[in-house]
């Protein structure tokens, strides 16, 4: 499991447009290493990719205190998260995309 939980309820000096639309490289590293991700809804673009592809599960801010219980419930789905991660990697492999789409133009 990889925990990527950002509390954006408190103001900080980053544009909302930025943190709503960012996909941190840390998430790519977690995915490439086959780690299901526990994430928040605050990073909207990241949330969409992670939830649409079932690469882990989302926590609300008020649920972080119940993480142990939620984790136990979600553990039953661990194998399906791994399958989804492997499918996502296979379908979105950057090396294959470079070889098939860019190299002919280089």
Model description:
The chain is mainly alpha-helical. Helices cover 51% and strands 8% of the residues. A three-stranded parallel β-sheet has the order 1-2-3, with helices on one face. The longest helix has 14 residues, at 78-91. It is flat, with a radius of gyration of 16 Å. The model has no long low-confidence stretch (mean pLDDT 82).
If you average the pLDDT, what whole number results?
Answer: 82
What spatial form do the alpha-carbon principal axes imply?
A: flat
What series of H and E elements makes up the topology? EHHEHEHHH
- Strand order, sheet with most strands: 1-2-3
Query: What portion of the residues fall into strands of 2 or more residues?
Result: 5-15%
Summarize it:
The protein has 106 residues and is mainly α.
Indicate the topology.
Elements: E1 2-4, H1 16-21, H2 25-32, E2 37-39, H3 44-52, E3 56-58, H4 67-74, H5 78-91, H6 94-102
Parallel strand pairs: 1-2, 2-3
Observed structural traits:
mainly alpha; three-stranded parallel β-sheet
């Amino acid at each position: 499991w990889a925990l990527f939980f950002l509390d954006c309820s408190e103001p900080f000096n980053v544009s909302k447009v930025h943190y709503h639309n960012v996909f941190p490289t840390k998430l790519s590293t977690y995915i490439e290493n086959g780690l299901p991700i526990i994430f928040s809804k605050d990073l909207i673009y990241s949330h969409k990719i992670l939830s649409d592809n079932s690469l882990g599960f989302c926590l609300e801010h008020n649920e972080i205190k119940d993480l142990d219980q939620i984790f136990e419930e979600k553990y039953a789905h661990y194998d399906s998260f791994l399958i989804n991660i492997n499918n996502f990697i296979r379908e979105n492999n950057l090396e294959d995309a470079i070889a098939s789409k860019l190299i002919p133009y280089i």
